[in-house]
Amino acid sequence: MVTGEPKQRLIAQNRALKLKLYQFIKTSHKEKGWAISWMCQLAQMSRAAYYKWLNHKPSQREVRDQAILERILEIAKTNNGLFGSGKMTLALNNNLVDGEKPIYRRTVARIMCVNRIYSSKTKYKKQKRYTSSKPDQTAENVLNRDFNSEHPNEKWCIDVTEEKVPGTKQKLFICGVLDLYDRYIVSYSISNRNDTALVNSAIKKALKEFPDSHALLHSDRGFQFTRRSFTYMLKAQGMTQSMSRVSRCIDNGPMESWQGIIKEMRAVLYPNVSSFEEMKEAYEKTIHYYLYHDPQERFNGKTPAQVRAEAQENPEQAPYYPIKQSKKYRDYWKTIADKKNQTA
């Protein structure tokens, strides 16, 4: 009896041991002529159980589990085991053929657990240093943490993040523009310098892609976003500028979250990078993977690119995907409100 493992794996492993024992009895009886009843007695199992296995035909569940396992292994092979059971379930259901039944997460979790298929994704620890500066221009927090958007190109977030190139003293900087409607990266720029040219390049690419956009653009108070020229450029485009409060990174939460996600994904998909050029290419491929192959639970298993394509196909009837607030946050704010009411 195998112990010390998750329940589903215990069941599978104990069953596998029995199957090996059945196979041993079958082989020994055929090649050495040993009596089946004698071997079953030594193994402390009934002859009926052995003969049931001998005449067993795979059930529909076993056949389906094997088919799902093969698809899980195929997906895991393409992304170095990036997905856990949740993302894997979304990815499987996003590629169902017509008439095929949906696959439930508990089924995927069981199959992955039994076959020791793990996500190789690890939590990225953000280390951001804040430096004091004297901004030329500042803006109010117009976004005010309202991260919901009913249509594409209504609300954009922008920020710069960095990562050190392994084995070198170089750093890679990414400036991304994120659409809050579909978590689609409207544009991005990559450089070895954190300067105004990096931000300007990302904004110009976004406006070239969507020249008619008058989106609200939210950022932190980094020096790249507080320049007069940057503010004038947004006004000329008819865009509203919004800024996070001082030392309140949560005001730009979706952008901060995306930066952590894309770094985690890059580390799994392309772990062996040793130069700036290799890391730049790795991030370009990772962002493409995120847009076209990373299913999102909020979007019912669709990728950001799929959601955007649907919205562009029929702009007036673009689906609305409101953010589902976590229960722990609802409970937290309820506790705060209750305390305020008690002291009032």
**What percent strand?**
5-15%
- How far do the termini sit from each other? 61 Å
Strand order of the largest sheet: 3-2-1-4-5
User: How many beta strands in the DSSP annotation?
Assistant: 5
Helical segment count: 12
- State the order of secondary-structure elements, H for helix, E for strand: HHHHHHEEEHEHEHHHH
Poorly predicted spans: none
Radius of gyration: 27 Å
The description of the largest β-sheet is:
5 strands, mixed
Rounded average pLDDT: 88
Could you say which overall geometry the principal axes of the C-alpha atoms support? elongated
Region (Disordered): 304-323
Organism: Streptococcus raffinosi
Protein name: IS3 family transposase
Domain Integrase catalytic: 148-312
Structure write-up:
The protein has a five-stranded mixed sheet with strand order 3-2-1-4-5. The protein is elongated and about 90 Å long. The model has no long low-confidence stretch (mean pLDDT 88). With 344 residues, the protein is of the alpha/beta class. The protein has helices spanning 7-32, 36-42, 47-54, 60-78, 85-93, 105-114, 196-209, 228-237, 253-269, 276-293, 304-313, 327-343, and strands at 155-164, 171-179, 184-191, 216-219, 241-243.
